[in-house]
Amino acid sequence: MTPPSVAQTVVTGPSRTPAPRRDAWRRAWRSLTKAVWPLLAIVVLLIITVAAFAGPAIAPKDPNRQNIINRLQPPMQVDRAGVVQHYLGTDALGRDVLSRLIYGARVSLLVGFTAVFIGGALGVVLGMTAGFVGGRIDAFIMRLADIQLAFPFILLAIMFLVVLGSGVLNLVLILGIGQWVTYARIARAQTMSQREKEYVEAALALGARRASVLFKTILPNILAPLIVIASFNVASVILAEAALSFLGLGVPPTVPTWGGMLAESRDQLLAGRWWLAVYPGVAIMLTVLAFNILGDWLRDFLDPRLRGVD
After folding, report:
1. What is the CATH number of the domain that holds 209?
2. Is residue 168 domain-resident?
3. Residues facing 86 on adjacent strands
4. How far apart (Å, rounded) are the C-alpha atoms in residues 43 and 293?
5. Looking at the whole model, is its pTM more than 0.85?
């Protein structure tokens, strides 16, 4: 009979001595401190996340409260008492731009992370199944991916939103389903390379179920590229949400979003009301740039061929 320790080593993955978790965190911290830009990106994302979750506590005004008397006020405008009422100005309906910007971060992060989670989970399951089982199931799943890639995603999203109607739930589902192809292709390729390894064959020979081999044995060894793709996809989903909101097909107009703020500023730019477009545009740019920088760092850190030997 095979000793339990040997059997456990064979089933769980390739024979290697795992580094302690504390050493992994230390290595990640050293890598962050050496590369300043990823650390700044994390700081920016933390600020945006705190602003999104603490919106009601830190927003100076109600984001939907209209005040026609104070409409189109420029930033840092003082009243008769010398007090600044609106730090970033007001829009065409007199709503506070700073408050709408803070509340808009909540929608962007919610849509970004939820859509990536849905698309990632669906794509990983389908991709690993196709790569491990093969045959007709593999061909069917990959042909579905090819069909979806044949349509421009933004046009497909517009079509479904016109049919289903606008709303946060519909937007998240459409953006999430639209992301599964990327994860499926990567998971399929990685699974096909891992299923021929000795530790997978040993696990199957010991009587392990296919589902257990897939998600307990193979999945931990292919997570690195999937995490990197997810970090980049959050940025692309935020851009897609802003584009759809700009077209009026995202969330309802009563919900503040950065894309919706850009759409509302179209008629005011020629009149010199620059703050209506600059502030939400800068917020989108900083968020997407931070996720892209973080994704670059994760790619270099998780790939041993790129990070080198510490």
Report:
1. 1.10.3720.10
2. yes
3. 77
4. 12
5. no
